[in-house]
Amino acid sequence: MSLSVTCRVDRGIAVVDVAGEMDYANAGELTAVMSEVLDAGHPDVVLDLGRLHFVDSGGLGAIVAAWKATRAAGGSLQLARARNHLLQMLRLTGLIKVFVVHPTLAACFASSATGRPSRPALSSAGPSPVPGRRSLRVRQAG
Predict the structure, then answer these.
(1) What is the total count of domains within the chain?
(2) What is the pTM of this model?
């Protein structure tokens, strides 16, 4: 199966639909679409992953790169309708603490009164295990 990455704008938020199988060989398709979305002035993005049937570490890396790019653009990235295999990967890697994950697209839009995606709040988590660096704790949107 191949990968399909399409985008639409809903209430000023880019909804990127990722469908099929995303692996190291085709993860660049998500990166390319994300670049177009951000270049078009849409820093708030929802990745709709309900039709993503497979993802490997290369695909996970592309999702992390998308999160970093939206943050750098002053926006936010939320994940919607992630399947169990991806949720398990996020838990195993600790990335579940980084991403705002919602069970539905509607929940993404309802996450704030303005309809704008929420951002994980970063706060100090106490002493850092690495001298000179702050540890950060990420809260998930409920």
Answers:
(1) 1
(2) 0.78
